[in-house]
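Hey, resending since the last one bounced:
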Amino acid sequence: MLLAQVRSIAAQVTPAAVIPESVLPDVPEVAEWTEPLRYRFALRVQIGLDADLSADEIVRRAVEAFTTGGFDIVEERRAGAVAARVVVTGSRAGFRIDVRVWPATGDVVYAGVTPAVALRAPRARPAPVGTAETVEPGHVLCYECDGLGWCPACGGLSWVADDAGLRQSCPECREQRVCPICRSAGQLQIARLRRVERAFYPELVDPLVREDES
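The structure tokens again:
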């Protein structure tokens, strides 16, 4: 649909331009690093102006084509390191198409993107690897992840969402996904607990403390 829309606009703005099928990629690109990831298709094609067409005429035709097609329109004049350009943007139902015109060089670029959509449902967090009922004799559930086995900060996803809902690397496991204390076991051997770790388990009586009390 994106290719068809761009071709329709181009046919009204630069009728002689040919927009080949190859400008539309076979696979979408990541548009938003959210959960789930959101994807979109994007295309870009550059052509040269015909000798009998001015940049002002191209801009006028672009505005007219977008208006006829029911697009919301924004026209901007942007400075550039090499040459200034005029950009006419049309938006409709989540689709966006730019007609970018370089008056100094006579180039026209058509660029378009589809709406960003998720291709799957949000990924569920993995189930705990251990529970109070499955913990092995001589072991206790990990005090850090409570038996989850996966990093408790990201839930085993390797990333966390910022305030804008965008992904960023998990600062706790640094994308390792597993709990940094039990390393995915979900439990810890009591005999190997340090005194500071035993403090997380009130039900455990520290033999050193018992000796002191006697």
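The CA atoms of residues 11 and 17 lie 7 Å apart.

Sorry for the duplicate.
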